[in-house]
Amino acid sequence: MTVRICEVGPRDGLQNEAEQLSPRLRAEFVDRLSSTGLRRVEIASFVNPERVPRMAGAEEVCATAKPVAGVEHAALVLNPRGYERLARTRCVEARMAFCVTESFNRRNQGRSVEQSVADVGGIVAAAHADGRRASVTLAASFGCPFEGVVDPGRVLDLAGQVAATGADEIVFADTIGVGVPRQVTRLLTGAAALGVPLGLHLHNTRSTGYANAYAGLEAGVSVLDSSVAGIGGCPFAPNATGNIATEDLVYLLEGQGVDTGVDLDALLSAAAWITEVLGRPLPGQLLRAGRFPAPPR
User: Fold this and answer.
1) Distance between CA atoms of residues 63 and 121, nearest Å
2) How far apart are CA 275 and CA 270, in angstroms?
3) Which of 11, 67, 159, 251 has the fewest Cβ atoms surrounding its Cβ within 10 A?
4) What is the value of pTM for the model shown?
């Protein structure tokens, strides 16, 4: 069994931090992660720097981060303007995202859900014309900070609309960390018939992130987003906290006999580095507790 990990630390991990790291330092972060065996790293966000100042200088990050054979650099875009910026860089994947609820989507990107779905169609077409992959994330798929419980039928309907655009991948995001495993199973099972690779973007706000990742594994998920050391959060979601930690996820997956292709010691080194850079304890547990031999199979 295999599953791909998409490392989102340089983007989702840093966008909610109190300290603003320079593009040069963020590019070094990308380089360290790219040397761990990870094959996919989300390195930047092409959004308005006045709204998300921690992501300013995205072009410089993309230009400074070193290309590594076998490692795909991706970046987030929220609208066609963002894609136009990405298109001038070496990034091989555009990760489009929108929120499934009207309140959150208007706060997060100033668009209605219907407008964002229309944007997705244009961005997917443009990315494919440019030879890039196009992944689409449905944010707040498990719950919204402003509207509360989200109807899974609504999420699956939007997933169907996204699949119709020709997107290469659909990711269900638990943006505020409220989901539980049965919700994961329901969404992945319901979307399986779309014939598009499915992913999960999980936050551990209420300590269900790793249980949800395991439920996704059992339901045949293709990709799991995670952030080294567990950093992360959304600037537009109250009380948003970090993503599941990549090193903790790799420990779980390897213990279950899943091939990740990641050098866990190298990943822990990257986690230690960003912990030192940010100057505070971070949520990841493996860095504190240490490795332990894998159980016999």
Assistant:
1) 27
2) 9
3) 67
4) 0.97
